[in-house]
Task: inverse folding
């Protein structure tokens, strides 16, 4: 089979096309014929071995790509029984295994959801990793209630125009019923956030407090930080409401004086979508969440965040990686292998 892979760490130029054996399916796995793969910051982290992410993947060569839509080709003897050959599926999988920039990939069946029937493969491949990040981070880790009858709560999505932010705006507004304030720094990204349903958009390049006060928001019940928290977490902390929850999808690396959060019982929690796969913990929850996302998409509650589509070529993948490197993209970029 053809694969887009690398044998060294570095810039996008390390990616090249290779001819590799089709993997054998064993254990709990499904073998999936890949139709489209979404691009995420984790691809860059693995490509460059940031924080040792590349070393998590056993063997050589290294293959990126953890946002997949495709068709089941073969089923392992211990698979959970939900899928058969020919079924369209979508998933993110585990960063500790080879990614899916290859014609056939392996994934633990418990981490797989059924592909939304009303989306193309490219549209579906834009959703798994980011949807899981939001659902796990806000509903599981932070305990934000779904469909709560309580007074509408205020949530700030920092970095609302990116892949996670674009689906977070939708899930938090349409599933959790929250009042969503997104941050953006450019006109294009501001309009992008509004198009996905943000109630207000403020700038993360300016102080938050006066901007929130100008729209009548005095305290934040929740924050989903989709960017580098070191940039502004100290500005956000005083704005948290009592019992507020802040979810960070990147680590806080600088020392923080968090004593001011004590009296308000404010929590700062982390979300890494790959934790379940890395530690083999509650894998079936990811399959359940993705099936729920598929139902919400089919009902028209959520929509794809696909913004750019690239061809399945070395140059296409290099260009998509450069887009992530530049941090100027909107929504999600996807590589398509088989035309939809």
Result:
């Amino acid at each position: 089979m053809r694969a887009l892979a690398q044998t060294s760490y570095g810039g996008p130029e390390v990616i090249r096309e290779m001819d590799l054996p089709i993997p054998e399916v064993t254990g709990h796995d499904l073998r999936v014929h890949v139709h489209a793969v979404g691009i995420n910051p984790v691809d860059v982290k693995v490509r460059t071995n940031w924080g040792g992410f590349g070393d998590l993947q056993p063997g050589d060569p290294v293959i990126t790509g953890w946002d997949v839509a495709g068709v089941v080709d073969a089923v392992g003897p211990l698979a959970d029984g939900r899928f058969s050959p020919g079924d369209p599926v979508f998933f993110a999988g585990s960063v500790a295994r080879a990614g899916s920039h290859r014609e056939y990939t392996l994934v633990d069946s418990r981490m797989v959801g059924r592909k939304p029937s009303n989306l193309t493969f490219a549209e579906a491949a834009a959703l798994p990793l980011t949807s899981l990040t939001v659902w796990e981070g806000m509903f599981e880790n932070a305990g934000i209630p779904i469909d709560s009858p309580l007074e509408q709560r205020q949530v700030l999505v920092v970095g609302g125009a990116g892949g996670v932010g674009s689906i977070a705006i939708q899930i938090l507004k349409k599933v959790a019923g929250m009042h969503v304030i997104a941050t953006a720094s450019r006109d294009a990204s501001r309009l992008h956030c509004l198009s996905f349903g943000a109630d207000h958009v403020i700038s993360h390049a300016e102080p938050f407090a006066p901007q929130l006060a100008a729209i009548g928001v005095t305290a934040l019940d929740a924050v989903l930080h989709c960017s580098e928290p070191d940039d502004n977490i100290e500005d956000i902390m005083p704005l948290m409401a009592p019992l507020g929850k802040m979810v960070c999808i990147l680590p806080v690396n600088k020392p923080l004086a968090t004593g001011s959060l004590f009296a308000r019982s404010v929590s700062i929690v982390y979300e890494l979508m790959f934790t379940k796969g890395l530690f083999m913990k509650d894998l079936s929850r990811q399959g359940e969440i993705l099936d729920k996302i598929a139902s919400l998409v089919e009902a028209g509650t959520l929509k794809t965040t696909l913004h750019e589509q690239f061809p399945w070529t070395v140059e296409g993948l290099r260009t998509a990686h450069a887009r992530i490197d530049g941090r100027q993209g909107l929504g999600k970029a996807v590589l398509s292998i088989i035309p939809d």
The chain has two domains: 2-127+281-336, 131-270. The first helix runs from residue 41 to 48.
